[in-house]
């Protein structure tokens, strides 16, 4: 038994590698606060986890909330076997319902711990590697049509073959952005127009009339599922759902009632690797493709995503993000490292990376 004795909680800032990250509705940032945790056990074993919420305007979560939640349910984890994921989640739920994003960091750390104890990389514990490597996507921050087209040209030259193009403001201007990007994207490039729920129903109707003929996916055009359903009936564009999918019931509903063929799954929204694997497997069983990522993050988040991507069938994987390519700070030697637009999962036990705690400074607080 690997009884948890200590939980160290660290904070550090992740700056965006391409200047300013801009989404719909005026949401923009050059940096995000990330929360890292180290779970240590009586036998000397330990595991690392991370959660970075993309400020407080992306979903109902923020860095301070993650840290407060950890202080709330953290003491209940002391003495629990850190390799028993069921017991870990039960202990957290016994104190605090919800707050999946805070629990995500604990879940990732316990998977890391489990892998290290077993002497196996996480992709082996998650069912086995199905892809030795996989294509990565990058987000195109919302800007002028020319600037967004230039971003796609530059990153395509670096090997990126999939882009999530940020839209969700004025429909006519968004259409110009998408046409400009589609014109310069190399053949075979995957383009996803992501409004992040930023359009009203009327705006989304206007937008799809202007972009319906483009070779793109349409992601979460409106905040409300009912509005997305109206839009789906007006367009031939394949639809990806993201922010609205939180539970398995949501996933079944957007597939059967809305006709979405793809879903974007995020670690923080689903409570970590455990919840994301469940939702990934359900989506694949229904014939959907999946995008795998988190709201934001560094080396630890990237490693967690990489193992889930490696265990996903190639034909079911729409896109994957390596956030440590998007950010400047690296606490685990910039691993896992992408290569010309492709990623792979580490092969060492657990997450397969080693965090340098000295780069994080002193813990914000310790639960012991």
TrEMBL record:
Residues 145-238 form the Mandelate racemase/muconate lactonizing enzyme C-terminal domain. SUPFAM superfamilies: Enolase C-terminal domain-like, Enolase N-terminal domain-like. GO terms for biological process: menaquinone biosynthetic process; peptide metabolic process. Its cofactor is Mg(2+). The keyword Cell membrane does not apply. Keywords: Isomerase, Magnesium, Menaquinone biosynthesis, Metal-binding. The keyword Magnesium applies. It comes from the Bacteria. GO terms for molecular function: magnesium ion binding; racemase and epimerase activity. It holds the Pfam family MR_MLE_C. Signal peptide: none annotated. InterPro entries: Enolase-like_C_sf, Enolase-like_N, Enolase_C-like, Mandelate_racemase_C, Mandelate_racemase_N_dom. Belongs to the mandelate racemase/muconate lactonizing enzyme family. This is L-alanine-DL-glutamate epimerase.
